[in-house]
From TrEMBL, chain A:
GO BP: any one term: adenosine metabolic process
GO cellular component, one term: cytosol
Signal sequence interval, chain numbering: none
GO MF entries: 5'-nucleotidase activity; magnesium ion binding; nucleotide binding
Ranges where the record places region Disordered: 1-47
Protein's name in the database: Cytosolic 5'apos-nucleotidase 1A
Coiled coil location: none
């Protein structure tokens, strides 16, 4: 079994596993028999599974308005009336296209491997809305073969059933629930202007504290100030930080990268990862790099900003997605055209621009 | 429940209603079986239908079939049905090989069983049959699931399943299942329309296990054409189905005999 999946395969009993194997064989045969040019989707346990919601894959702002102003019945009717009109791309669309590009490369290098990206559409929408969603997916010819249209039920259970490695949604509550269940998740934001992104390389940028790492150091900054923070980090330079919600996703990316390096393609690798942190290299950077090393993880570029705004640098990097725990940085990234994903984890949620929010329980949607 | 012409008659067997394997099966009061949750959910749908419209003619009717029962058992079964207050209108006590005939002569719209062999045999005889799923759930919603693989595959593709190793008999069964599903879907669709999208006592679901998204899409549209707009849809593209089923928790699972694959030669993995 691939090491990409962190959780153990929960197989209930021999018979169930056997039945699942038969289903798998039948699907394989079905695909080959229909002489489809489309590649067969990998088995979830071998793949890096990315679950996207309908509102992140497509731009459904107008549709959402119908739902909020006129209610569920009218909304479903509206979608049925427009079912043959493809939806416009959403914030996760470029990311999904980039994942497809990486898959193509991986398939060329390793034609029999199932260690690929597997994209699942995970939506709360009713199946009738699904017709429009599927028509839209067909229109753009996206390789999304797996769907969960839960008709109003929470998707969290299904995320686990698909062994999801990363979940992207516009719904804060669902993302928080997912993180609490140990699934890497983030809330997607559409940037204020669209930038041209690479079509040959998947570029993913991560914040450090409370995203890749736990928020332990973040807590020190917020509660005791920067000076204490610097001292603390220097003292504990050799003690690895605890892991954060997105660490496993970085790990999964790293495993795919290693496969590409093994085929001597390092210089032309279709995946590139970035660390964009407000830490400064001199005073608190060493601990971060040593932590990554202790986890056996490589990150392609580490950028220490020492508190400078992230927006301009991200504009140069042009990632398909940028993960950060603080809304302040998300706003900054958005304003300068970067697709940002908010990770609602850790103490940063209780603060806004350095000041403690009066009611920490009420989070902005 | 009146014997109206719009009754959706569902047949269950006594060993699914009561747990006869349990150590307590000797007592006067029989322990509950898998079908209990189903019967409760059906009852709730019937009640809601009538509450929306007191002259409602559409509704479920549950009949019980018991084979090879002693006189003592027959009495026990009837007493227990009364004891639990189940709305079962008719009882048929017959021999084991008469079950199919009994189903056919009573205009049964669905025969529910936990035995996939039985379901397969029934479908083969053109009797609508589906899996009574052991959902061990506390859902008060009646959940009905349809197989997208059978519904979404066009006729000629069903024939081409012979290339995958399915026998002619099996393919005939799938085709028969599709016809049965159509009728059932139409009836369920009508019932479903009596309720809104939210807070409905009846929920319908489509699961496509093998087929690609276009099979799933085709199944959704076909069901729509038959009069049923499903609420939930899952497309697995070969991913393991059991974790998803464990979450969907259907009462009725129409798989058309597709998953009774014991006789199919082993596929090359």
């Amino acid at each position: 079994m691939s090491e990409i999946k962190q959780e153990e395969l929960n197989s209930t009993n021999q018979n169930v596993e056997k039945a699942d194997e038969t289903d798998w064989a039948a699907a394989k045969a079905h695909y080959e028999n229909l002489k489809s040019k489309k590649p067969r989707p990998p088995k979830p346990k071998n793949a890096v599974t990315i679950a996207v919601s309908s509102r992140t894959l497509f731009d459904m702002v107008k549709d959402r308005k119908v739902f909020e102003e006129e209610g569920l019945e009218k909304y479903v009717e509206y979608q049925q009336e427009h079912e043959n009109e493809p939806l416009k791309p959403g914030s996760a669309f470029p990311f999904v296209k980039a994942l497809m590009t990486v898959n193509e490369r991986l398939r060329t290098l390793y034609p029999d491997s199932e260690e690929l990206f597997d994209i699942v559409l995970m939506t709360n929408n009713h199946a009738q809305v699904g017709v429009r969603l599927m028509n839209s997916i067909n229109h753009y010819d996206l390789t999304i073969e797996r769907f969960c249209m839960t008709g109003g039920q929470s998707p969290i259970g299904y995320l686990k059933a698909y062994m999801t490695n990363l979940y992207l949604s516009k719904d804060t509550k669902k993302v928080q629930e997912a993180i609490e269940e140990g699934i890497a998740a983030a809330i997607m934001y559409k940037p204020d202007m669209m930038m041209e992104l690479s079509e040959t390389q998947l570029r993913v940028a991560f914040d450090g504290d409370a995203v890749l790492f736990s928020d332990e150091s973040e807590i020190i900054v917020k509660q005791h100030g920067l000076d204490t923070f610097f001292e603390h980090e220097k003292q504990h330079e050799n003690k690895p930080l605890a892991q954060g919600p997105l660490k496993c996703f970085l790990e999964a990316l790293g495993k795919l990268q290693k496969k590409i390096y093994a085929k001597n393609e390092r210089l032309d690798c279709p995946i590139r990862t970035f660390l964009v942190t407000a830490r400064s290299a001199a005073s608190s950077g060493a601990r971060v790099l040593k932590t990554l090393r202790s986890w056996g993880l490589e990150i392609d570029e580490a950028l220490f900003l020492a508190g400078a705004p992230k927006g301009p640098l991200l504009q140069k990097i042009r990632p398909h997605i940028f993960f950060d725990d603080q809304m302040f940085h998300i706003e900054g990234a958005k304003e300068m055209g970067t697709i940002a994903a908010h990770v609602p984890y850790g103490i940063g949620q209780k603060y806004n621009k350095g000041k403690l929010i009066e009611q920490p329980e009420k989070l902005q949607k | 429940m009146e014997d109206t012409k719009n009754s959706l008659i569902i047949a269950l067997q006594h060993h699914d209603i009561f747990d006869l394997e349990s150590p307590n099966a000797d007592t006067e009061v029989l322990p509950k079986g898998i079908a209990f949750s189903f019967i409760k959910a059906v009852h709730a749908v019937n009640q809601r239908l009538v509450s929306h419209n007191s002259s409602e003619s559409l509704g479920f009717e549950v009949i019980l079939i018991a084979n090879e029962c002693s006189e003592e058992s027959k009495v026990k079964i009837v007493e227990n049905v009364k004891h639990y207050g189940m709305e079962i209108c008719k009882f048929y006590f017959c021999k084991k090989d008469e079950v199919i005939k009994t189903l056919q002569s009573n205009n049964v719209k669905l025969f529910l069983s936990t035995d996939s062999d039985e379901i397969y045999k029934a479908l083969h005889a053109d009797v609508p049959a589906a899996v009574l799923y052991d959902q061990t759930g506390v859902l008060d919603q009646l959940k009905v699931t349809f197989s997208g693989d059978i519904i979404g595959l066009p006729e000629d593709s069903l024939d081409s399943l012979a290339d995958l190793g399915f026998s002619e008999a099996q393919i005939k069964t799938f085709k028969s299942a599709k016809i049965c599903m159509k009728e059932f879907a139409g009836l369920i669709g009508e019932m479903r329309r009596r309720f809104g999208h939210e807070n409905s006592p009846l929920c319908t679901c489509l699961i496509t296990v093998w087929g690609s998204r276009n099979i799933c899409l085709s199944a959704l549209k076909t069901l729509g054409g038959w009069g049923l707009d499903v609420d939930e849809a899952f497309c697995m593209a070969g991913a393991p189905c059991s974790p998803i089923l464990a979450l969907v928790k259907p009462h009725i699972l129409w798989d058309g005999g597709l998953h009774n694959l014991r006789d199919v030669p082993n596929f090359e993995l």
